[in-house]
């Protein structure tokens, strides 16, 4: 027993086994084998190593964005000219990666809380019976919906535009509309100015300051490149692709929109700053690329739906003891600055992993050719005998039973 165990251990540690190989001279099988190996080789070198950079490790960027608008616009409404600067047309305050630049507006001045008639077409009436006190009308000519205790209006199936306040139960004979309790006079937003009042916004400029860091590699980069003169440059896709100062009209154009059309109702635009860097080369080659995408529609405004981007903003003030406000319905361009970054660098571990997986894929050629040899070709039985060596192990002979001892009782 001990000698058998020693022989087994000696065989395991001191002997080497190699698979048996059979050289088959067959043109078809040889061509198929080399063709498959060539395809695998092209895949490993071309796709895995060159395109997918399988020899590198990858790190994602952590970035920050600071924005700043510049420009002054003039708008003339009802013969009165008004100056608009950055503090007037940018919402919210400067610096955010997401903000709105006003291009058009509807201004309602001197509003104060009280009772006043609704706009024509909002809720027409002939008598007080047509104006149920406390009701809130959701649609232009649809059903009434009663306000809930928390003063939130319930939606009506008919949809449409809501009233500006709560019905008081009175029909105003001068306007033939119901009286509402609201901020008076009510806002008239039925007609949107066209062309936009702030067309000067096309020449406003946007400055974007972006910094990113790649934690794995300990590298920090900024979009403020030394060779770019910030005092003179304006971004151009061919002549000045690294300048971080953008003309608003160019942003809209590169997003696939027409500024004159988009300025009337507003819209949404995304600015993508892409950092794709290869740190196998000098880090000075790690530079941003700016891409512009329209986030609203397909560039054509649809007249049968709620189009554009708008919101309301109010500025409150006191007129003696009376609180008043100036209400602005703002139409503008919502701009979202998004940063994405991926950096790569050579590392021995992914390189060895990629090479090992590539060598394993080469085994596909052997498997395919073996299947052809053993199951497709006419001489498949011959190839089976050449590839496999069959050994028949004799069964062990049964152990002979010993004769039973002769007992005294048996002698008798």
Automatic annotation (TrEMBL):
Lineage, broadest ranks: Eukaryota, Metazoa, Chordata, Craniata, Vertebrata
Gene Ontology biological process: calcium ion transmembrane transport; response to ATP
Annotated function: Receptor for ATP that acts as a ligand-gated ion channel.
Gene3D superfamilies from the UniProt entry: atp-gated p2x4 ion channel domain (2.60.490.10)
Positions of ATP binding: 68-70, 205, 310-312, 329
Name of the protein in its database record: P2X purinoceptor
Keywords of this entry: ATP-binding, Disulfide bond, Ion channel, Ion transport, Ligand-gated ion channel, Membrane, Nucleotide-binding, Receptor, Transmembrane, Transmembrane helix, Transport
Family, similarity comment: Belongs to the P2X receptor family.
Disulfide bonds: 116-184, 125-171, 131-178, 233-243, 277-286
Predominant location category: membrane
